[in-house]
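Incident log, structure service

09:12 report received: a user says their structure output differs between two submissions of the same chain.
09:20 pulled the input from the user's history:
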Amino acid sequence: MTLPAQNLLADEASPYLQQHSGNPVHWRAWSPASLDEAKTLDRPILLSIGYAACHWCHVMAHESFENDGVAAVMNRLFVNIKVDREERPDIDQIYMAALSSMGEQGGWPLTMFLRPDGKPFWGGTYFPREARYGRPGFIQVMEAVDKAWREKRASLHQSADGLTSHVEARLSGTHAKESLDRGRLSDLAGRIDGMIDRDLGGLRGAPKFPNAPFMLTLWLSWLRDGNASHRDDVLISLEQMLSGGIYDHIGGGLSRYSTDAEWLVPHFEKMLYDNAELIRFCTWAFSASGNDLFRVRIEETVDWLLREMRVDGGAFAASLDADSDGEEGLFYTWSKDEIEAVLGDDSALFFKYFTLSSPHGWEGKPVVHQTRSQQAQGVADRDRLIPLKARLLAAREGRVRPGLDAKTLTDWNGLMIAALAEAGRSLGRPDWIEAAAGAFAHISSASRDHRLPHSMLGPRKLFPALSIDYAAMTNAAISLFEASGDWNYIDQAKQFIEQLDHWHADAAGTGYYLTASDSTDVPIRIRGDVDEAISSATSQIIAALVRLASVTGDLDLGEKAWTVAEHAAGRAAHQAYGQAGIINACALAIEPLKLVVVDSVDEPKLVPVTNRCPDPRRVDIVLAIGSETNRPLLPGGILPPTDKVGAWLCTGQVCLPVVTDAGEFERLLRRS
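09:34 re-ran on a clean worker, output below:
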């Protein structure tokens, strides 16, 4: 079959695909029909993968996909398929792994050439329209691929088969399970510590990414083994990035990464997942250090989230673009004259606390940032700065706004819901917990036949969900339970795991696939073991199973979590990169912490201590004195007495003696 000879993206649910609906390219979305068309026409597929907030995706679109001449070549030689990597991370991971297997550096836009059956034979990332930057021109590339397709097809088939086999072995292969070993976390944390930039935080060199999986490894090493240098690695990294231009000092929120080693000039896109991780790490950092910087940045970032990222229904949008009015960072950057025009005589006070910088190679207006001393003083004098920043924010609202990718991604929302619930509990902000509950309810209610969607945009929903969606929403449900005490969230978490088991479990019961068993449009069914900016699907699944087993006392579920973790550890041992998430999750499986607190509702003694001592290894269950229903089991099947105040901290199947004194309890939590 063949599809209409026109661009078919206008009715897609992805804003990124819709952005390309006006291109003269005859784009198709990824579907069985698109692959069938390539088979019918006996043409290779040109696959272009990107996302709405991607700067270089916009550059390639403007240079090539909006150009009639380039489009004519594309339409004549290929079946052209456009994919939003956020909608289809399964497709993205397959072809990114193929590019990596070719020895090429990954990134977006991803440009791959495929056989009609979807097997890749060659590719790259950004190609300029005309040859430059040491890269061939895009038309030159396409004509070379077409020539090879016509004249060396047997060789391309061989290449495609070899690449596909290699990717399949990497992403969906089976390896012998490995015993779970405490030493793997210590070993990885030591290696990460050796890569840390002692002065600037983060990993040495540029570009600099927040790298949440690595930071979690260091934090877990500190919590479990008391390695203070690993704690300090995380605290210094947070302090440095929060003073840099990667953080939006006027409106709150973190950009995706810094182009330099100083966290100064970011690519200005803001992603929901990065800011979920920022809120979580700052919650832990504030508890560990008492530094008000982390509390202030949480408040600013949540203000940004609720102001700019909440969509109809209460869930959260995926991202904000880097560009506005065709220029990267234009919305966020300021000249000295612009600030003085807004603040007048108060501008001198502003420049006491903030610096404008235009480093070498940056062509835009100056970037707002702080020195470390300015940051510390700014937190101390925050009340003086709030009205100044409010005036600048109001003036900024008059600018052309960067594009909002308003689609609701289930997995990213799960991360943010958990982060909001945890921060709300720790900082005494019930309004944040309420916002998290609203987002959770909106996504849960979008289910069809008990199955979650992966993505939503208004009334349009993309089914089926991926395994990472069920894992993230299970963890979100447990965090909301911890914040509210509402056992309905645990019932929902169980339902999510039921769907995960039904649609994603492998035949041997040793793990899960990223895509559902009834997804027919993927050339390879991958596991989801590899970390990206966030921890992998597999690692989030292990954490969800461990945490739910701890809350419920379900020993069978605990055994399942252990089995999945062992097999994941076996596969991770063969990964070249991206295994930190699995190692972190296995550390949780080895030593899960469960805290049961019985306290007064009216005059609580122990609950405030629990809330101000968050620990990602721990699940917290709070009961009111006198509770007779929903009493959780302690290990060994023991019901905790609820006639008086007490707290039981358990590691695996062993509990410490009950604690009743608040001071003793806090000392216990801070050294556990």
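09:41 both user submissions now match this output. Likely a transient worker issue. Closing.
09:42 reviewer note: The two ends are 63 Å apart (CA to CA). Residues 9 and 243 are 41 Å apart (CA to CA).
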